[in-house]
Amino acid sequence: MDWVKPKHRTGRSNQGDPGNSDNQTAMQWLEKLCVDNVAMLQSSLPVEPKQGQHKPSDFPIHQYLQAMLWGVGKWDVAKPAHREFLNDLVDAFGAEPFGYVLSKSSRKSKRDNQPLGVPDEIRSQQVAQAAKIGKWITQQLPKSSYDPYVALTATGWLYALPEVGRDVPPTLWLEVLQSTLTQVDRAWEQGPSDGLFPWVIWACEVPLALAKQMSHLGGKDRIVSETLNRLALLIEQTAEEPQALLAFGAQDLRAFVASLIRSRWAADSVGARKWYPPQRRALAKFQSILLHLTDANGLAMLDQTEASRHDPEFWNSLMKLSKGHKKIQLAAAVALPDQVGKEQGFKPAKLRKNKTNDARLPKPSHYWEKNQIVSMRRSWRKSDCQLAVDFSRDAIWLDLCDESGQRIFSGEWDVALEYRGKPVNIDVAWNEVCWFSDDDVDYLELECDLEGNCTVYRQLMLMREEGMVYMADSVLGNPEDSKSDWKSISTWTLDASVSFHPQAKSNEGRIERIFHDDQNDEDRTQPVALLLPLSLPEWRRGTTQGSLQGSQGKVVLEARTTRTRLLSAMLVAVGQKSRNPIYTWRPLSVAQNLQKVSDDIAQGCRVQIGNDQWVFYRSLAPCSRRTLMGLHLSMEFYAGRFLSDDGTYEPLVEVSPE
User: Residue 291 pLDDT more than 60?
Assistant: First the structure.
């Protein structure tokens, strides 16, 4: 895509170069704009508007700068220290530059829509900081332009120009602009081959940010209109096929959408056209994806908790852009912190109590098959037992939230195997075997085939009504092996805010969180999850099949067998059930042809918490008709709820062989 010169400059350009009057690169546009007078470029920067001339559609500069931090995470880059330059830029031009609080009392005019004034001392510091960061940008762009921190800092520098552009040395001004436009040309020529983010910054946001600063450019200028058309197409295509944004745990998703929001602001400031319905629908799809991968505290999932931040302004801005799509707006109001919903005129607390809203909301769970990411939740109204899983890499990432929306597990959910005392290398990708979702459960089953050794199956099931999660690893070795000795070690990474406490005499354990009791002014612990290792006996005494322990911020479940097949299962109860003092579990006898089968053929278990009971069954050998507790099953997996009123079972999920 070529950089197209403004129409009102066409006549002047034709006189100098009639053969190249239609299309120009970004650098050619700059050269013709500057000619021999660099000061001309600086003089085109917006000046402080006179009374009555302020554009009500634009935002103050510090709002653009604060928005540069939306979606910024801990990217895996060569130089993470580059983030400090982005933070320094925001500190210099944000709402509190160098500690000075911008408020209405500091405005140069009494009109609310006039720019904020800062003392000369603060302004001189801003000029010095802009010059320092500008020099750094020119050094980094040739080699690190696709470092997200570098791209964001360069864009933020452009947004800050009206504050200091006339005071920055002209040669530095031009040097930064030349380096920036070189990257714009590169983005237009190569396309998003290196990923959508930060390509969208160079190809779309930077041109619009620059147009915002050039007082002679308007919304109908071809530079603006062509960029806006490119951005509109990108939004529609990416919302339809979001695979590129969901790679690596969707680490670029928020930053990408934040760039779309800032680009829209810049386009509005020059009077560009609004988004048409297809673009608004696409933005609503982005909002839906974001909500699925966001916890109740507004933090991005599939990432370390401390690496994310909640920005209410981000959600409010996105909701305004996709306004009109009632379902997703309502979902955001009930799923996010109250501040977001209230800003849009909702009453979140009241909405969460109304169960009839469930029928008006989108489906609470979603599976992105191409990216191997799954989002599970009980409902949009309930924050507990929300799950996000990324199995696109060897080590699966699992996030699990408690009833307050805070993480319990956050990090790798791994499995290690030992055969006859020697480690078995697991370097094979996980493949989905079964995905099922209805009003009762979300169920995911994965397979990892270690050719020549064994096959590992991994199960994950959210029980929607109960607020419980069933997780299991099954190891199926060679059935002809007469001297098997398998050991599986399943590990879950605990969030930094919780700790695991095993019981002294029994095999279960609890996860507890420390909270501050304001009434007694002391720190106390509260159970947030109950862990029941269903593959182990209830009592520790005489247990030889394995153990459930905590180790260095992880929960470790070990299971052992001298047979060819092994099952290691755990049930996690969250919310009120995690604090219920009445609970137990028992292995069940499984029979086939009136004979009890061994635990390498099939296993069953009964679980009770309070007055509620459930049954779980897993076949490890080829399926055949078997019985347990009056159930006649010919399937691979069964989970059912026991109905005490009539003594029958209500199936939650039944997985049959293909």
Answer: yes
